[in-house]
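Below: protein 1.
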Amino acid sequence: MSPIISSGSTTQGCERFSVPADHSPSIAKLMSNYDKVPYPDFIHPATHPGNMAAIARLHGVNAPPPESCRVLELACGPGGNLISLATLLPSSHFEGIDLAAGHVKTGNSMIGKLGLSNIQLHHGRIEDWVTEAESDGERFDYIIAHGAYSWVPEEARQAILAICQLRLSDNGVALISYNTYPGWHQRQMARDIMRYHADGIEDPQTRLRHGKALLSSVAQNVPQGSAYRVALEEELKALDQANEAYISHEQFEDTNRPCYFHEFATEAASHCLQTIAEADWGDSTYEQVRPDVASALASLPKIRRAQTLDFFRRRTFRQTLLCRDSVAVSEQLQSSAMESMHFVTSSKLEGDQITGSNGLSGTVDHPVTQAAIGRLVDQYPSSISCEELCAIVDSQEPDSLATLKADLFNLVCVGLVSVSASPTEACREVSSHPRATALSREQVLLGDTVTNLRHQPIRLDDTTAHLVRCCDGQTDHVSLIESMIAYAMANGGLVEGDQVITGEENLRPLVNSKMTSNLQRLAAMALLVG
């Protein structure tokens, strides 16, 4: 493979990228900052190839099969997102690259513990991967750049797009996340206040504390109810709810460059890339927009429509799917593509009312659709293929089949049902010797967040985390009860309602009564494989 170094030339109207000198001052500082404060090992559900493929196919792109694909993640951090995917798609191959040596070391340690052979993490610069692919084996079906584009210097930002241009397979799909205007104008104001006050402070925690202190002081000394105070209080609330390591990088790094969506689309086009859609269902719908406005938006060209919708939503963040500009992308969703997909829902169905965990609700009128949703609810967290759902319909009722497909399509579009190009197979019944996923059993040793079989982050309390660790497939229910009693006694008891239960004589009946339901809860979280 040879680097693309002819920065002044173009190929078929696309920019060619110049590989910059190794470790510019800005890159060196970035490396140091991430080694001092490791970035949180976030999981990004939208980056699952099954999700990326589903959305791409619904837009007419014949995305590669997730079950046997090649995936590259740029700025992969400690690798948690990619490691989870590697455990879920064992026949696919994964590679990640990160600038921070500490991140890569942490990730490779986890890979070794799990015994994974389908994933590699590399320490290095994004720019070093700007190379021509000389064979299909050097291309990637899915490229992920989550939490990088807005937060790296210009040369690395251009390298991200160049890698997508040069290394995507013919029908490959890339996901790039970035901060967006107009929403980030408000956040930029809060960031500027904090960075100004913390200027010159080297210790990250002290810098964060001083920055938030001034922001809070400014908010408290602005007239109550004023637009300025409301804006500052919104930002303070968001900061209080966020991970401190995340805030340290998001708010205090030198580089954080939001952009308008139309600017991102233009930049991507200069690298022979086009936008497909957003990677999160519902992000491109007209929810909470008046019908007349929605109709006007629908008549606009694709990029202008999406940008205008961002103005309505005061959007701050995007996760955009892209592909080569030579690929045909449909403006209209291709509902027929769902016939090869898999459905799952965490929504609740009561009568004809369906209510999602996202707070949305709707009415399911047709009996066949009600039956199909009922099956999905019963099978959760496992998915059901479209073919299986359609088998509910009597072969003599073609109209009912058409109604079912149309209803499923609409429920997916509003986020009450999820769809994927790959199945989710979770253990719904608790066995005599429960076994949690190997990944979750390692993750509970490191923190309070684990990743489930749907590639979702799940926060656990300390007691539940200990139960996950004990579910090794070799321990029966009786032994699990003994282990939980011992854990509770060693850690001051268990909380039940507004009381703390202590002492073996009180803990034993409590743990006995709760064990079955707690194990069933782990199954519902998609954390059990046996």
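Below: protein 2.
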Amino acid sequence: MMYDLEFPKNKLLKRLKKNTRLYASFLEIIEVAKYLLTKYSVNFPKYSDHSIFHSFTTIEYIELLLDRKNINTLNEDELYILLSSSLLHDIGMCIEINEIKELIGKKEFKKLVELYKKDGDADFIREIHHEISYYFILKNFETLKIIDEDYAEVIALIAKAHRKEKIDNFDVYEIKKTVSSGKDFVCMPYLACLVRLADDLDITNRRTPEIIYKYYYPDEERGKLEFEKHRSTRKVSRVDIYIKIKAKTDSQETYNALKQMIQKIEKTLNYCQKVIHKIGSFNNKEYKLTPSIVEDEIKTEGFIPKDINFSYNNEFIFRSFFSESLYPKSKYVIREIMQNAIDACRLRKTIDGDTYEPKIKVESDGKYIKFIDNGIGIDEFEIKHYFSKIGESFFNNNRIVPEFESIGKFGIGVLSNFLICDWFEVETKKASKEPLNFRIDKISNINFLFYEETSDIKQGTTIKIPINFLYPEIFNVLSLHKIIEDFFVNLEIPVWLKATSAVGNYDAFLKFHPNFQKQDLDKVIRKIPFPIDKTPREINIKELSFNDEDLEGSLYIIYSVDKKDNFKDLTKYNDGVSIRLFSKGLRIQKITSKNLYTLGGFLNFKKKSNLNLNKSQILPFSKVNGTLQKCEIQY
């Protein structure tokens, strides 16, 4: 039975036909897969269908997801790999438990047993079947009639990616993978997303025909619910950006299971959209996935569904989340805005190289304060999936430029603006995208309001905040100057501060190589009650500098040259002498040496540190303490 006779209008297959070698191989794979996939019922006699018909349906849904332009973007190698991996993605369901250990190796098998073996063999195989599929395709590619080992490697990885795998790991799922034909590259993450989403969409009652339901109805609860979900789902279709799911049930339990299944599809769709967005476009090819919204229409009989779930009071969330535990002072809002601007500039620098000159400007006119950068910019997708979501950070999720490492930590920085205002505006533009101009309100039925008009903005982002005189430490220009300089060290991006007011103008380039020695020395000198015969020049400083692949900075001890008045005696005069800790140029906190109270300076950790919700505990203190001990011993 020929596949193209069953699906004569399939656009993917029509395009593959143009390459007779790849097309012939694909037809051979079908015949082998038909036989092997019948064996799934040995392991799963009471599970929903995982035969060749599920594989065919997966291919149907891939076509459903793609517009004609998207299909035409795919080259012949991509079509062959996409169709073949769709056929073989569930081949791991067909391998019996006694064959798995030999197939994947004792070491790997033991690891998987430790992770997943809880219930019976069937549940274990189901949990790891994507891993089994990967090994089976690699080791049996000749039997499967795959052209060669190069194609088999990519097909195996795409098949494996239909569940659990991190498709945005571009070291494994390469954006530009060349296979043996050498004609063109294969975009592995795009193909993997299509297979994963299409597999999730095969949820209709075609997977549980009436004869299977009648004679093989499962007797355990999980299996029953799986059968009922599929039996209740009538249709999956697509209209433009919408994936529409129709279902009907007379069971509240099945209704809840359907809603959970639809939420899972929404989660998969959002994840795949993010991955594809990161891929972007190159070599005049643009990879896209048009559907972005899942709509359900579930008819019920015998009960009234009430979709009542926990919701959140926005004002309470803002008050609680952006509290003193995370942002102890309002000036930390400035730090968050500045670090986002720095990340945007650094990412663009990584992409554009030496042709790009990063700039950040801070402007105040007495009514508003603006933070303007010429960084990477934001597009509508990123606003929806990152900018508007607490805990999601575009910079932290960036995988397309692996050498880039952000200084932002949590993906919540922009919302900290609501600590000092009730609304703010953003104007932004990303390369090759339309400019966007919008307002965000703290408490509103519509948090995001987009304006039709935009200024003649070039690439970058401007954040505009209304001045609130309840926070003079932020909106006083001299105070703002000091705040920004104190929060950063060795910053390679020029920052220009400009203010206009009725009493005059202020114009300055900020310096990020602060003289901490002079600041701390002045603090100690001001406290010491010098006798007439002593002068401040008798107080001295000894310095020790650091610079390696992880750490840079300098520490110094303030002491007296008078032996009768050694540096230990100066500890009582310490008034704020401290060690400033920075991570990638961003100041995190200050600490004091436990043994040398007049030990000051700064340490900047060049690499991003592990996270902790409290920003005062972000840095690796084992490294800090080790550095301080060396310094204390030397002094």
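The two ends are 85 Å apart (CA to CA).
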